[in-house]
Amino acid sequence: MPELPEVETVRAKLAPVLTGRRFESVTIDDPRLVRPYEPAEVAAELAGERVAAVERRGKYLIVRFESGRVLLIHLRMTGSLRHANGPPAEDPHRRAVIKLDNGSDVMYRDVRRFGTWLLLEPGELEPYLVRKLGDEPLDALFTAARLGERLAGRKAPIKAALLDQRTLAGMGNIYVDEALWRARIHPLRPAESIDRNELRRLHRGIRAALEAGIARQGSTLRDYALPDGASGSMQKEFKVYGRGGEPCDRCGTPIAKSRVGGRGTWFCPTCQPERGQAASSSSSRPSRSRRHSSV
DNA sequence: CTTTTTCCCTGGACGC
DNA sequence: TGCGTCCAGGGAAAAA
Description:
Layout: H1 4-18, E1 23-28, H2 39-46, E2 51-57, E3 60-65, E4 70-74, E5 79-84, E6 94-100, E7 105-110, E8 116-120, H3 125-132, H4 144-151, H5 158-163, H6 173-183, H7 196-215, E9 256-260, E10 263-267
Helix pairs in contact: 1-7, 4-7, 6-7
This protein binds a DNA duplex (16 and 16 nucleotides) through loops.
């Protein structure tokens, strides 16, 4: 399931392939991809456009054309883009194909058909993204204090708040669980109850989890693949996601599995205590000493 | 405004 | 072997 690290990896691999190239022709096989627009019309509009840049914002892939138009791609759960020089392999899950002016093709495949392509006119992109997305977590202006502002007054579980793209852009179910483990924060903690020290840990945990994911070129569980077909390897580094019953890397306690906000949620019951309930609001004493005792 | 719920969509895992 | 059921989950939209 492509989250920020996966989309960033795709962007990095696709940028040199697409930049400067012209879309010779586009075929859209699945009408759902561009709904509510007509597939044939969108395909015709895309034909002839030349790529100026390939960028990313949150989980969106942004293909900027020299005309000022933008193709905004969201891979959702199972979308992927594949670049090939030969004739594209037959694939029952192919949803669209872009023929480039150098003879190569970019195929879009998507098993579950949740992904979307949206063609935007010049000037439409920025307001669209502002409406939907919060801070870019790896951007310099995303700080622990800024995170605190976004969480203030929110009673929802911290996990739900982090999954909300308007809080922070790009976190999904995997990296939220990983970040909360790194920050040693229970996924059900009310977002507004996260104190200063915890905010610092969470800020670092978010960045560390995402950066690890990018360094490993994302996590391949089933459908995600790089544009050349290679797999990411972040799934080998998961601390909690999908590891129910396995020992926590920090303390050895079996990882617990629950459901938060309708999502499968994994955490370490020892490292990520629920605490902080009604009683002791335990002011932010710098409990700097007495960290964890490894294993 | 915030939060919760439902729905979309397919295929793999599992029970019988 | 085959069928039914559950699960995976990002985000839009509607409900609360």
